[in-house]
Amino acid sequence: MTDKETKYDAVIVGAGVSGLFMFYKLKNMGLSVLVIEKSDELGGTWNWNRYPGARCDIPSLEYSYQFDEELQQEWNWSEKYSAGPEILEYLNHVADKFDLKDYINFEEEVIQAKFNEDSCLWSVSTNRQKYVTKFCIFATGCLSIPNKPEIPGLESFEGELLHTATWPREEQNFTDKNVAIIGTGSSSIQTIPEIAKDVKNLYVFQRTPNYSIPSNNGPMDKDVEAQVKARYSEFRKENSLNGFGLASLSDEAMISESDLEEVNSQFEENWNTSGLAFFGGYADIPVDVNSNEVAANFVRNKIKEIVSDQETAEKLCPKYHIGGKRLCVDTGYFQTFNRENVHLIDLNASPIKNVNSNNIEADQDYEIDVLILATGFDAMTGALTSLDILGRNEVNLKDQWKEGAKSYLGLGVSNFPNLFTITGPGSPSVLSNMMPSIEQHVNWIADCIGWMSENNKSVIESTKTAEDEWMELVNEIADMTIFTSTQSWYNGSNIEDKAKAFLPFIGVPVYTEKLEEITAAEYQGFIFDKSN
Ligand code: NA7
Predict the structure, then answer these.
(1) What's the mean pLDDT in 278-301?
(2) Which of 143, 180, 273, 467 could make an S-S bridge to 377, C-beta 3.0–4.6 Å?
(3) pLDDT at 250
(4) pLDDT tens digits, one per residue of 188-205
């Protein structure tokens, strides 16, 4: 170790929801820990995605930490679904309350992490210096690396070019401007109703329409808040027993066994109350294509009811299974297309031929001042494969994952000892409420490190066999659902040259059961100190 290398028990990469809690846990265990954060602020996804309308689409009483009773009692959310700035305020409150900020190295970017087989330590190189650490923990998020697709002529555009995932902090003034937005995923669906209010014209370039359910957002109902807070831990426990880890609408009712008229009237009620939970309204929507079609058709009919121009409505109606792409939750998205200043351009009928200095050429020329890319992320693996992470024999993680990411439990990767990922591929992550899934992983990693110390183990690594079998299970479960039926960022289809592999583990309760079994069997599938 040179003078310039500082040694830690653990280095955590990222100061978002997962990095903050991971740091809190390890600090309380008495470990020496460093958090490295690329931005000058904490908050991860909520720090980067500051576009107008950015909002959590899971109710905030659920999308919040549960590790500290005082915290969950004292914090009051102003709305059912919190907007990005309020979530950032909350995360800052958490960091202040538990004295976390002073230990975070802001504006420092990890470039390489390399495992040394002799010392069994990791060297972490940043744009500033080098650190040595026993454990390397990637708290880098599932949706962190923006997808910037190749669009012909984009580099020649002379107006303002924005991406929803790297939105500037300064307020953007779009008054009387002609604005184009490319992409119609969740970010776009949230921002379009906000942006449309001010602009002269908003041109929405859509490649694939999305299903979206109204959020039915509003001020926090104080009675509901009080009821939840009176039994918060039970409430969290109940939610963890539902497939997606969310408070569910569902009993065990199946569309296939129900009267269609009753189903449609139930859907009507769910449409007016539920948001994402709409998808769980009947147990067979995710697994039975015919039942799925009933739900899909209900939403298509809603779109046609809301949007006055039927040609536009038809273009906004998705044809694939509902849920195949991430279901969206909106506040007035479809209604926005009734505005005279909002225009939908179907890229399937007329692809973008070129972007010039001040216009987009498609079916006609659209003169624009601002171009917004709402084109998503290199999801689930992008934040890891964009770095040089070198494990045993200097194998690079991005090479190991070339044919598709494989991980054991979404927590460990063979050839990468003492490296942990929080909500990595193969875990419920993006197909669950991220907050409790993050807490589950952080608690597990902290317990594992504690167990290793008590049992005199210094190196943990998952076996390739465990990893292969685990990913087979991930795919077996996914194949029983509609999730693999559509091109989506769940299976890497949105990124050119990315291996197509379905990555999230579907089913929070099954995952939890398996994780607990494996842990109780003294971390079955992991080897310690290469000896057992
Ligand atoms: P998404 O959901 O990946 O949406 C990206 C959108 O951009 C989607 O409509 C894409 O169409 C579109 N896209 C991507 N590349 C292109 C090109 N080259 N041309 C035209 N359109 C393109 O990302 P979001 O940021 O909206 O949401 C991500 C998640 O954040 C969300 O699900 C929540 O979990 C939070 P496509 O469908 O690929 O045809």
Answers:
(1) 96
(2) 143
(3) 65
(4) 999 999 999 999 999 999
d(CA 342, CA 357): 22
Q: Which residues contact residue 255 at a Cβ distance below 8 angstroms, ignoring those fewer than 6 apart? A: 263, 282, 284, 285, 288, 290, 291, 294, 295
Query: Cα-flanking dihedrals φ and ψ of residue 71, to 5°?
Result: -60, -50
**pLDDT band at 251, cuts 50/70/90?**
low
Distance 185 CA to ligand 1 centre (A): 4
pLDDT in tens, 69-96: 999 999 999 999 999 999 999 999 999 9
Written as one letter, the residue type at 129 is Q
Please calculate the CA angle 334-338-340 and round it to the nearest 5 degrees: 135
- Protein residue with least CA distance to atom 24, ligand 1: 376
Distance CA 208, CA 490 (A): 15
**DSSP one-letter string for 84-144:** HHHHHHHHHHHHHHTT-GGGEETT--EEEEEEETTTTEEEEEESS-EEEEEEEEE---SS-
Handedness of CA 443, 13, 410, 61 (dihedral sign): positive
Contact present, 26 and 446 (Cβ < 8 Å): yes
What's the start-to-end Cα distance of the chain, in Å? 29
Radius of gyration of the chain, Cα coordinates, nearest whole angstrom:
23
Name the phi and psi angles at 239, rounded to 5. -65, -35
Question: Which tokens belong to 73?
Answer: 């009692």
Ligand 1 binding pocket (C-beta < 6 A) is 143, 149, 151, 164, 182-188, 207-208, 326, 347, 374-377, 489, 494
Q: What is the pLDDT of residue 528?
A: 96
Beta bridge partners of 390: 114, 396
* Assigned token pair, 313: 């409505």
